[in-house]
Amino acid sequence: MFNILPLREQLPLKLRALYELYGYKKYRMDKFEPYDMYRENKSFLKYEGIITFTNPNGRLMALKPDVTMSIVKNAVNSAESNKLYYNENVFRMQSTNGEYSEINQMGLEFIGGDYNYSQAEVVLLALHSLEAIDSDYILNVAHMGFIGSLLDYAGITNGNREECLKLIKQKNTHEITEFANKNYIDSYKTEVIKAVVGISGDFETALKRLSSLALNANMISAAHELSELYKAMRASKLEKKLQLDFSIINDPDYYNGIVFQGYIPSTPRAVLSGGRYDNLLRRFGKQQNAIGFALYLGELDRALRSPVDYDTDVLLIYGDATPAQVISALESIKTSCECVRAEKEIPNSIKAKRIINIKEVIGNA
């Protein structure tokens, strides 16, 4: 019965089974949250135009623009790990046209637990999630700690950091050179930044190149983290699906370690995005580590659109037969097909692989 569902409806069920297999519990979020939580953490959200309203008690509420923040707010400050998954709709303003949209997300969060194992497990589940969509997928990985330490080493302060990060994301080496000249960054440090920007492709080869560019203890530590992640994925025989690519670096206020984005051929934008966000836990006064990802189901509509050649396997035409005869015929037919539809007459709008008159079934009974 599961396979007769459209692919778009199969996917959440497959992912739910996958996440629960690894011990994740479903998180159910209220549709509305107090606006204060989002206002106080606006630097982490980066979303404009949160939809708000005043409830009957006079409290300002918001239609949820984010799930992770709610999970973090409600997480118990404990040494024990908390593993949650969700399937929720969030509400955000589109940057392209300023219209509000409802976005279906499915994802998971691993809060607490062992630092290295948690990110190995989450990246593994990100790979399996992509695999459930399309076998021809790739997961790009980077490390915010490596980039942050590199910018510290180069003397790029908070005032210029955002501009430099933007150029790194764009892989714009020409503009990086101009940026360095304008900010009096010496040529050696500039060339190292450009070399890191140029790293991409096969994870093992790219990681060797990255390790050779580690100029301080923090960068060496970040490269080691990436190496340990690669070894863990090699144990799952999925290491070939990883690529190192620093154009996917994300918001440094939110992410502080490994970050990643997943791609499939039929969709131009990332369909999965995640990373380590310990900084957000600290914002809420909690000391655990945390890593997770979200899968953007809306981005997958085209990829998951099932080609429909037929509306039903079997169309049963029952004419003047009694309801009891029709039910009996349906019970007999359904054992040999995935979908059967009963109609009094042949409808013009229904395409069927096979049309059966009920007299054929009754005659065989």
Features:
365 residues, BirA Bifunctional Protein, domain 2, 15 strands, elongated
* Number of separate structural domains: 3
Please mark out the parts with pLDDT under 50 across 5 or more consecutive residues, or reply none: none
- Identify the CATH homologous superfamily of the largest domain: Bira Bifunctional Protein, Domain 2
Major beta sheet summary: 9 strands, mixed
Spatial order of the strands forming the largest sheet: 1-5-6-12-11-10-7-9-8
Kindly estimate the percentage of residues that lie in beta strands according to DSSP: 15-25%
CATH class of the largest domain: Alpha Beta
Could you outline the blueprint of secondary structure elements for this entry?
Elements lengths: L6 H15 L3 E2 L5 E3 H6 L1 H4 L6 E3 L5 E4 L4 H7 L7 E12 L6 E12 L3 H19 L4 E6 H10 L4 H13 L2 H10 L4 H11 L2 E3 H10 L4 H19 L6 E4 L12 E6 L8 E5 L1 H6 L6 E7 L15 E6 L5 H11 L6 E4 L8 E6 H7 L1
Parallel strand pairs: 1-5, 7-9, 13-14, 13-15
Antiparallel strand pairs: 2-4, 3-4, 5-6, 6-12, 7-10, 8-9, 10-11, 11-12
Helix pairs in contact: 1-5, 5-11, 6-11, 8-9, 10-11
